[in-house]
Amino acid sequence: MEKIPLLPFIISAQFVAGLSGLVMCITAWRRRRLAGRMAVYFGAAAFCVAIYAFAYIGEISSHTVQSVLTWIKIEYLAIPWIIPFWLLFVATIMGHEKWLKPRRIAALFIVPLITLTTSLSNDGHRLFVADAYLLDAGSFYTAQLQPGPFYWLGQVFDNLCLILITGLILHRLVNSLPVFRRQSQIFLIGTMIQWAGLMVFVSGYAPYNLDLSSLVLSVSGGLFLFGMVRFRALDLVPMARELVFERMTDGVIVLDAINRIIDFNLAAQKILPELQPAVIGEPAIKALAGQTTLAAQMIQAAADALEVELNERHFQVQQTPMTDGRGNPTGKIITLHDITQVRRLLDELHKLATCDGLTGLYNRRHFTELANLEMDRVRRYSGALAIIAVDLDHFKRVNDVYGHAAGDIVLQTAANLLKSTVRKIDVPGRLGGEEFWILLPNTIVSDALIVAERLRSRLEQVVIAYETHELRITASFGVAGITHADNDTLADMMRRADQALYDAKSAGRNRIHVADTSAG
Q: For 10, 100, 214, 255, which has the most beta carbons within 10 A of its beta carbon?
């Protein structure tokens, strides 16, 4: 059976390899403004692969040793630079550009320059290739070289660079956010192909002593080209974006035009544990089913920042639209900015502005504001409103005998009893000194009297331990109320309650008086 000639197949494969290198080079060059130096490094490596592949066609087609050696010199115009440029590209794309100082880059090309110089001047010293002869492979010849010391210097240098490249990719693969690992996996597969080609070359198992290096580099480069087209692995924007993502404290989620999750960063994953690689491509409303409020805000168009609470923390949710070159919407970027500390500070400032610092009850200004709102509600929607004035009995004596620290404890104890006695809708306040007020919405005077009696009873039963003393307190109460039919103002109602309180004190303290019913 007649053997199929291999030479046309080898030449065709090399031509495709060279053409792939040129395509990669042109593609990277067109992206240089967006990707910067890493596109230049990748394009330079791809261009060198193309020269290597095309030159090997000349070598494999030669029939004399001299012709083969001439083509090898042409190949070595490109070969020494491929791996160094590849290392620069990988180091840059993996986020280690800060290492690439001009002096280090210059040092990286010392050995390739030596390799190039000795390969071109080999006829005068034979230190790169000591000897060469041709092996007959039937339809073509392959070169058998006896390497010199400078040849091995270049081989050792390339292998060390390849080890460093592999280490950088593995580090990136292990430490990368899962959503980005596919990109690193593509790089690793391409590098493993280069290692496989190296092993075949070193072991001597290459068929017919063919130099598979250019083919291996081209296949590896073709894989990266596929990654660039299919997975955007060499689109340096996602890679550079990941470096920004991983260092951002704000959570970032990227949605496409139909509100599917296509990207997120580590900070977002910490905020929302639901964000796992499996949710990529899922609708946000489904992926974040446990956070319906946030998901609803994300899928709606919102020009202004919104606020949402997630896991007891407050976040400002900001949307940034994404468009293509023609201005058509392509998606949106959702930013989650932690404002918990700001919210707590604002709450604290609000508390300081509205509450008494010692007891935590509403201060006079805020109590009056809330009371006026309740008065308006009674006027508008009918109903009733009651108010209780409370004044601790003989409080001055506590301060005079035991000191102001004891007085503060007494006030705090009374305030705590007051807060635990009234309803959530009631409005308790400390309007000054030992004077407390309680506003009771939707409450008639008779019901307010029950509340006042409950509080009076609890106060007289409490025993306050202070140092070696046991302090007891009582209070006097004045109760007043209005209905929607009354014309009293808040000041009128408070004046009547205050008068009732004065009457209770005059009658002997620790008792409750109700304001004149004819006025309320």
A: 214
